[in-house]
Amino acid sequence: MQSTSHSRGTNLWLAETLWELGAIQFGKFTLGRTTVDSPVYVNLRLLIGHPAALWRAAHIIWDELQALQRMRNPQVEPFDLVAGVPFGGLHIGTAFSLTAKIPLIYLHPRLDDLGNDIEGIYRPNQQALIMDDLLAGGGSILETVLQLGEAGLMIRDAVVLLDRQQGGRERLRRQGINLVSVLTLEVLMNYLHYGNKITGEQYRDTMDFLDAHRHLEEG
């Protein structure tokens, strides 16, 4: 099962906000293990410096999830906990937890380097919703899913603000995890291009990069 936001106003608000915050940079970036020589970098962590924007992002996620759960064929399963992926997802998850009044948990690396402890209050067989700011290859989310699963928690859905469309969605799907994204990199670039906020070269370079990775999304 795959889901993404269907609200044009919602995802375009986030696109505009990220642009206004200076969160979108162009150049050549290597980010983690799966993003090499990307022509664009989106720093969603800048949201924490603007409480009103972070507050609205949390409410948008909550509204989207409720809408997906109310569908005749629900696209998101009920959940008892929200699990923020440190560090970007932890900020978003905290804001969401306060908005939705749903308890938060997160993985905390142990000092002895022998894994992670789970911070927060939980019980085995509870359902946890994974939350991160951005998805590229999906490794961070899958690592969180694995360790929460070892503690007896169940995970069926993950939420991100931005899907970079670099194979992460398909990788999660193969592991039985449904993805909900507020915004995709393609929608973001189209918004900036047709709003004359970026150059034609910046747009073409990014779309070429997306096309080179599109086969990863198709599985």
What's the SSE blueprint?
Layout: H1 8-20, E1 24-31, E2 35-42, H2 51-69, E3 81-84, H3 88-100, E4 104-109, E5 116-119, E6 127-135, H4 139-150, E7 154-163, H5 168-174, E8 178-184, H6 185-194, H7 200-218
Parallel strand pairs: 3-4, 3-6, 6-7, 7-8
Antiparallel strand pairs: 1-2, 4-5
Question: How would you describe this structure in keywords?
Answer:
alpha/beta; 42% helix; 6-stranded mixed β-sheet; 219 residues; Rossmann fold
Write up this protein.
- With 219 residues, the chain is of the alpha/beta class.
- The protein has a single domain, classed as 3-Layer(aba) Sandwich (Rossmann fold).
- The chain is built from seven helices and eight strands; from the N terminus they run H-E-E-H-E-H-E-E-E-H-E-H-E-H-H.
- Strand 4 and strand 5 form a beta hairpin.
- The two termini are 14 Å apart.
DSSP, total strands: 8
State the end-to-end distance.
14 Å
Structural class: alpha/beta
Under CATH at level 1, the class stands as Alpha Beta
Uncertain runs are 1-6
Work out the helix count.
7
Radius of gyration: 17 Å
Helix fraction by DSSP (H/I, runs of at least 4): 40-55%
Estimated share of beta-strand residues: 25-35%
User: H/E series, N to C?
Assistant: HEEHEHEEEHEHEHH
Overall structural domain count: 1
Q: Order of strands in the sheet with the most strands?
A: 5-4-3-6-7-8
